[in-house]
Amino acid sequence: MTIKVVRGNPTPEELAAALAVVRARAAAAAALPSGAEGPKDAWADPSRIASARVPRPGPASWTRTFWPS
Question: pTM value?
Answer without folding.
Answer: 0.45
